[in-house]
Amino acid sequence: MTTLLHAYLRAAALPNPNPTAPPGSEVVTTLLGWVMWLMLTACVAGFITGAGMTAVGNLSERPHVAVRGKSSMLWSVAGAVLIAIGYLVVSTAYRSSR
Fold first, then answer.
1. Which of 29, 31, 76, 94 falls 20 to 30 Å from 6 in CA-CA distance?
2. Domain that holds residue 44
């Protein structure tokens, strides 16, 4: 049964439609651009805030504040990297499917 199905699928010409954006999709693209910009801005703000927390924690002898600042800096960088990787993966997959 599966051999017959495989033979049929090989013989049948499966259509490969070209992806086209529907009318009005520019709004969605603009919205995604704004969201990406906001998230990257939040990552930069988190990094700067974490650097300030690290400085204040070290200067005022509050090690828990310094540790939170360092953690904030690391998570901000990780978030920015994930945003960039997510964009690259999706755009590469889209280009390879065309």
1. 94
2. 25-97
* Domain membership flag for residue 16: no
Confidence of residue 28 (pLDDT cuts 50, 70, 90): confident
Angle at 32 between CA 31 and CA 36, to 5 degrees: 120
Whether residue 10 lies inside any domain: the answer is no
pLDDT tens figures, 48-79? 999 999 999 999 999 999 999 999 999 999 99
* Matching residue, tokens 């590469």: 92
Please give the structure tokens belonging to residue 3. 């051999």
Give CA–CA dist 92/17, Å, rounded: 18
pTM of the full structure: 0.69
Q: How many domains does the chain have?
A: 1
